[in-house]
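Board notes (copied after class):
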Amino acid sequence: MEQTVSNEIKSSGEAEPSSSRHGPPKREFNPSRAEIEDHVRWWKLFKAIRQNDWKGVADFIRLNPALLTEPIKVYERETVFHVISRELSAPPWLIKTLVSDVNPNTLEQLTDQDDESALFMALLYTAIERLQKPLWGNLHNIQYLSTTFTGAAFDLLKKYPDLVSKTEDRGSVLEALANKPLAFASGSQLGYLQQLVYHCIPVQEEHIYFPGSVVRDVENQYENSKRFSFFGCIRRHIFPAFAVVCMKLHLMLWHAIMTLVPGIKLIRDTKLMHKQTVEIVRLMCHEGVIWSTDEALKSLRVPILTATRLGIYEIVREILDAYYYSYCFWDENGHAIFHIAIIHRQEKVFSLLNKLDLFLWEWKAASKDEKTDNILHLTGRLVPSDQVPGAALQMQKELKWFKAVKSYVHPSLQEQRNGSNKTPKEVFTEEHKELVKEGEKWMKETASSCIVAAALIITVVFAAAFTLPGGNDNDGTPNFLSKKSFKAFIIFDALALFSSSASLLMFMGIVASRYSEEDFLEYLPKNFIMGHIALLLSVICMMIAFGEAMFMILSHKWLPLYLPLSFVGCLTMILFSRLQFPLLIEMFLSTYGRSMF
């Protein structure tokens, strides 16, 4: 290497700051005579690039064709391709012209002082679309592209499918993708509303053609019909056209929504990235390859084990389809994907393996009276998780996991003892002792806070029932008795009292619970849910009763104040709901949602 970045200590004693690997190098620039001469030779090129004179750049290379492959040593060793790849305004025609003048083999050997090719620099500066096929042959470049610019990698592999067959080590690409859970739908962390939009929004508009496959599929519904009546002919031609029109309108509607709400476009882009990443995995696993045992062990073992641990079932599914015995791969601890899915509580992977009827000998075969851990012992181990809010919810999830797996295994395995002479249930109890204590503390603290809130609401609405707005006459009859708003006030005040009282009783039941393991499965969560719903209802009814009271009092001269006060009351209800709803929904879905598998 002819030119390196200086790391020496300055004469004043101050150390030279280290440079970023891919950033501009930092050095004391004391150019030598050779560097000055080199700069003189290249200065016309640098000037043309700085002025965006791309015709001038092409003319400079045309007059000096030998310089196209010579190293530039003005500041650090690099080539013309490295310099131009950093210029995002460089036109594609210039890249095509330069690439066509160099042999592809020579092109791949042109590296800078960090031994990085022009393609890698283009990837770094997002200049992907300006490069041509000869630059894509390097495996490191394909791997970097697949994990960093999924859309570009998908388009490139789709345009040049032979690049997949030329990839020598597909395992590197699969392993890199297996460590990117956010690149897959199974690893995305979307909220409930975002998930709803994610499942509804279309992402395949560019693959829909008119009259296309939709028309063909619809017409196939009629091709077996033996009745060719007049109305049948009309239906056969009108219905497909109507379907295509509806589809077009549907896409136009989503495009309008994405224009008005940028967040929805972000969700659409995320979904498109997920689909493209899965397609890249499918190409790497299936395109132009029949896996032998040695090749599968080398390339597929680490990706499938990593994907199982992180819950990326898309990769697991494709690798299982690509090589039949991939489910037999083991990690350094002697665990296969089945055991890893259980240990790390990956529901989707476990469900996939269950549907494929894999590892039947692990759970359907009878116990051989061996003092070893079976899958129930593995399920009984505690797995810390930062994705479950609250110790009580985590304990509920652990119980659901244990009971779900227990329902699958052979009955003899449920009482089998391991090397420590413990049954699976005993292992579960011992491993989760601290979690039970943490869950009890969390439940009691939350219930106590809600008890205070419910008690305050009871006090307020109970007093309001006997201190009526407008007062009473001499006979004790309310002065506003004839008004409709008074009746609404009484009804909602009573509802607030009843619901807050019910909430208080529910939370007192939680505080007084015995907190056994089984209580965390249904009893405590159900009381928690009903108590929170009742508390939320009491707050809403109390604010409505307050609004009706304000309307009766301010219904004359001060009526303009009613709307601002009502708006503030609505903000209070919205704030309370926003604070309580996420936890309530999480608990509701965990308790009443779909089964574990």
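Comment from the instructor: The radius of gyration is 34 Å. Residues 9 and 15 are 5 Å apart (CA to CA).
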